[in-house]
Amino acid sequence: MNHLSSDHNKTVQAILNDYQEQISLCLTEIKKVINLLDAPIMISGNQQQLSEKLALANRMITQTTERLEKLEEHSQLLQNQSHLTELENYGEIRELLAYQLEKIKQKTEKWQYSA
């Protein structure tokens, strides 16, 4: 029985470690896409540069969205682990990241329509 508990704890810890890593990667990617979108375009009105910038931003947004979905899956797996008090904070962080990502999506959509 103790062996099962030990295996379960290792599994929970592995999921938690991956969860923490995914949060960190989401934050890094969101910062990168914000920096990308805030960077000036060298030649005013350069459509190709704007299109490339938007394409890269959209790829980054897609990747971050996938990470956030994975975080949601991890959250469901860890839901029964009431002793993991940091999960509540992680849930709030995940929600803030999703909110920020949605704002970025809206900004890129505006740019795409104006491009």
Automatic annotation (TrEMBL):
The lineage of its organism: Bacteria, Bacillati, Cyanobacteriota, Cyanophyceae, Oscillatoriophycideae. The keyword Coiled coil applies. It comes from Crocosphaera subtropica (strain ATCC 51142 / BH68) (Cyanothece sp. (strain ATCC 51142)). It comes from the Bacteria. This is Uncharacterized protein. Residues 54-88 form a coiled coil. Keywords: Coiled coil.
